[in-house]
Amino acid sequence: MPIPIHDAEALLDDASLSRTEATGESFPALEHFRIQNVPPAAYYIPDFITKEEEEYLLRRIGESPQPKWKKVGTGRRLQYWGGTMSKKGILLPEPLPDFLNEYPDIVERIESFLRVASSVKGKEKMELGINQVLINEYQPGQGISPHEDGPAFHPLVATLSLGSHTVLDLHHYLNPTSPSPPMISSSPSLTEGEMGKSIAAIPLGHLLLMPRSLLVLSSTLYTSHLHAISSRHKDIIVPRSLSTPTTNPNGAQSSGIDEEGAVTIANAELLGDAEVIDALREGKWIGERGIRTSLTFRRAEKVLKGGALGVLGNALKRP
Ligand SMILES: O=C(O)CCC(=O)C(=O)O
């Protein structure tokens, strides 16, 4: 059973905890959170923040000025903090707001969690260096089509879920000989080079993301796979033993969706949620979706020097 991050201090005698040198904070080793049965590498950390922190963040996000929100896709709303990307994939930086890097300082919590939890002898520490936070708000029935976050960002992202659960689908590209039915990518969020590539219609895995959890995607799951959220009002999850798994070309298990739309999830062992675990033991868990707000923490690799003012400065420069 995973240890909620904010309770980790209570378990200091656990030899698998890593401790930060700077603050003395401790975290369970990252390997505890690795999601099995999906390509490398995804980590699911339940209860990364407390209920009070979740309420506070939702309130502060809700108080953002109206023009900060953009409507996209099927009506979901999004906001960027830390700056926006130029057409050439360069971040025009702006300072992050206090609710992200002062209280509850999620940015630093994620950075130190990754650094400390990944610090294993002989292995490179995971460093993110967050400089942009993308906030998505989904009403029940809204989702996001399969996409990659693209090469403008460091191939490691962390997503915090607030308010409601969702199910994230992981997709792969088809190779020409693959038997799985294709869907042709035409999503504008795909990077230019990926447009027109066929995507397997059957996801290779599903992840249940509960409120307050953190999902970390890295390595090939970032660089050569896609992720999506289907537009549903409710999710039906069944235990793996009740589904008929199929094998995709990567050799990973695909969980088929049955007539009712029930799916199996790859992160069931990591959920740490008694209600879901009990329901799965009984045969299925049904979750009505509420409004879900997700915060995606990432690092744009190229940043304009001098910030957004630099652009203005350059524009005003005389020849
Ligand atoms: O809401 C999420 O969990 C995913 C968001 C996402 O993939 C995106 O905005 O690119």
Task: List descriptors.
4-stranded antiparallel sheet; single chain; 7-stranded antiparallel sheet; alpha+beta; dioxygenase; globular; 319 residues; 29% strand
Biggest β-sheet description: 7 strands, antiparallel
As a percent range, the share of helical residues equals 10-25%
Mean pLDDT: 83
Output the CATH homologous superfamily.
Answer: Alpha-ketoglutarate-dependent dioxygenase AlkB-like
The portion of residues forming beta strands comes to 25-35%
Please, how many domains? 1
| Strand-pairing-aware structural class | alpha+beta
CATH architecture: Sandwich
Overall form:
globular
Quantity of strands, as a count: 22
Which ligands, by name, code or SMILES, are bound? 2-oxoglutaric acid
Individual helix count: 6
- Uncertain segments are 8-15, 247-253, 310-319
Please report the distance between the alpha carbons of the first and last residues.
Answer: 64 Å
The name CATH uses for the topology is Jelly Rolls
How do the strands of the widest beta sheet line up side by side? Answer: 3-15-10-22-8-5-4
Nearest-angstrom radius of gyration?
A: 20 Å
Order of helices and strands: EEEHEEEEHHEEEEEEEEHEEEEEHEEH
Topology:
Layout: E1 17-19, E2 26-28, E3 42-45, H1 51-62, E4 70-72, E5 76-81, E6 83-85, E7 91-93, H2 98-101, H3 106-117, E8 132-138, E9 144-147, E10 156-162, E11 166-172, E12 182-184, E13 198-200, E14 205-209, E15 214-218, H4 219-223, E16 225-229, E17 234-237, E18 246-247, E19 253-254, E20 262-263, H5 274-282, E21 285-288, E22 292-298, H6 307-316
Parallel strand pairs: 17-20
Antiparallel strand pairs: 1-2, 3-15, 4-5, 5-8, 6-7, 8-22, 9-16, 10-15, 10-22, 11-14, 11-16, 12-13, 17-21, 18-19
The structure holds 2-oxoglutaric acid (AKG).
